[in-house]
Design brief:
By secondary structure, the protein is α/β, with parallel strands linked by helices. The chain has 18 helices and 14 strands. The chain is extended.
């Protein structure tokens, strides 16, 4: 049968409750849409969920624009034909890529300087891939402007770095207190280190003067090494997104720099970069959230990055989850020399928590001593929500059955009155039948279709930081994990629009399936 003779074989899993338990069935999507109200007026795109068990025509790679269904063999054949075409194209280019690169290395032969028309013997690939300069013009073009460009001179058929006296002077400041020039080594995103003479004065700290030039000093006072802001942003992003440790990053950019002939006596980066990054974290956080101007009345709606835009603020249903993540830190790794730069933005004060836990454990039995931590979390949550608000709190916890009985024994009436409990759906079926009936989120009102496994997804992200944080000082570790959590929250907030839209489609389709079953 040809492609146009085939039909879409899309199905959706429907889960529904009856008196004797939970049942699951598969319903063909075409038949559902055709039989709805006796007419086939709905389209697949109108009801098919973007996520879940249903298959949408636009999401299935085996379904073309015309809605035709490719068979497995035909799809496999089409996929490998595409791969073969790409391989054939690359094989034709491989030899030419090498020869073209070698030709470019000798493009200065017979060229004239772009500025003075003298014989060219220098190039600056940062200025332009076709920039040809004589030695004098190359030096003049990069003494004050474009000072971080890598200029090379051709000698005996080899490109060497051209030594140029480079100077940075802040033009909008006339100092009457006296100025002094000091040489610093500046590191760019390719790992190249450039010696620059920078004009400092007594009017402001050396670190601030470097910041005006888009440089981040390695030390707060009289730095001898500085990094371009691009280097710090690259390291910060790789650290959060790819969990690249500072030591690995330094090794990578040093390896990149080793591919280029450079001057000797280069500085070691790791010992100073690790502390510089911690200051850069809080610097970026304040710039992103604008918390340094949050006291102004015109920006009263600003937050410090921890407020979810989708959660109810005055009334509605608040779904929360609790769980534990065991990624420990070696106690011998060191002691804190300062408090965390992020403070208690996301991590609670350890002394306050331990004091509550010790007091609570004295009144608890040996079997329930570990429940002191969720009790503290619940009390802290209720302290942040006014009792007069119309927010209904629904809490998912792996052993919510034990926790609720523990709260009743210890007469935690405030928690019992204001919090509804359920067990995450995947853990629920491991409990006794009584717990499954009483605490299943599919049976307890207010939990909807949430699975309660949101923290497992968060733990999957945080576990990647275990290797780099286990040797850190406590305050350093708190800052790294806080920054990681803020980064994760920002990504999730950015995807809320599409997520809510997809879930609305899924909810509407589920309601339709249940009514028709």
């Amino acid at each position: 049968m040809g492609r146009r003779g085939k039909r879409i074989r899309a199905e959706i899993n429907v889960i529904y409750h009856e008196a004797d338990g939970v049942k699951k069935t598969k319903v063909p999507l075409n038949s559902v849409l055709s039989d709805a109200h006796g007419a086939c007026s709905s389209t697949v795109d109108e009801y098919s969920p973007a996520t879940g068990d249903g298959v949408a025509a636009d999401d299935d790679p085996a379904i073309g624009e015309s809605g035709d269904d490719l068979g497995d063999e035909e799809l496999s054949s089409h996929h490998y034909r595409r791969l073969q075409r790409a391989e054939d194209a690359w094989s034709k280019l491989r030899e030419a890529v090498i020869s073209t690169t070698l030709q470019n290395q000798g493009f200065l032969a017979g060229k004239k300087c772009c500025v003075c028309s003298m014989v060219a013997n220098c190039r600056c690939l940062d200025c332009s891939p076709t920039m040809s300069l004589c030695e004098s013009c190359a030096s003049d073009q990069h003494k004050v402007h474009n000072i971080f460009h890598h200029v090379e001179i051709l000698r005996d058929g080899i490109y060497f770095p051209l030594k140029i006296p480079r100077t940075l002077i802040w033009p909008d400041h006339q100092c009457s207190n006296g100025v002094n020039f000091r040489k610093l080594m500046v590191v760019d995103s390719r790992g190249l280190q450039t010696e620059v003479s920078i004009c400092f004065c007594e009017c402001e700290a050396d670190f601030l003067r470097l910041l005006r030039f888009q440089l981040w000093g390695a030390t707060p006072t009289k730095p001898e090494l500085a990094f371009t802001i691009n280097v710090m942003e690259l390291l910060h992003t790789l650290n959060l997104e790819c969990q690249v440790a500072v030591k690995d990053f330094c090794a990578a950019i040093e390896a990149m720099a080793n591919k280029v002939i450079s001057f000797p006596n280069l500085r070691k980066l790791y010992p100073v970069l690790i502390d510089s990054l911690e200051e850069f974290r809080i610097y970026q956080h304040k710039l992103t959230t604008l918390t340094f101007v949050a006291s102004a009345s015109s920006v009263g709606d600003l937050n410090n990055g921890v407020i979810c835009p989708a959660c109810p603020k005055s009334q509605g249903t608040l779904l929360e989850s609790m769980d534990a993540l065991f990624i420990g830190r070696k106690k011998t790794a060191g002691k804190s020399v300062r408090s965390p730069l992020f403070g208690n933005l996301l991590f609670c004060d350890d002394g306050e928590v331990e004091e509550f836990v010790q007091h609570h454990r004295q009144a608890a039995s040996k079997e329930t001593m570990g429940l002191a931590y969720p009790v503290w979390i619940l009390n802290d949550l209720l302290d942040e929500i006014p009792e007069v608000s119309g927010i209904a709190i629904h809490m998912l916890y792996d052993i919510a059955c034990l926790l609720e009985r523990h709260l009743q024994v210890h007469e935690q009436e405030r928690i019992i009155q204001h919090v509804n409990f359920a067990i995450p759906i995947f853990h629920c079926y491991g409990h006794k039948a009584y717990c499954q009936i009483k605490y299943s989120p599919r049976r307890v009102s207010g939990f909807g279709l949430t699975d309660g496994e949101v923290l497992e997804r968060l733990w999957s992200f945080l576990r990647r930081f275990g290797k780099m944080t286990k040797e850190m000082r406590p305050n350093h570790r708190v800052d790294v994990l806080t920054d990681a959590l803020l980064y994760y929250a920002n990504k999730r907030s950015a995807s809320l629009g599409k997520l809510l839209s997809d879930r609305m489609k899924r909810a509407n389709l589920t309601i339709k399936m249940v009514k028709m079953s």
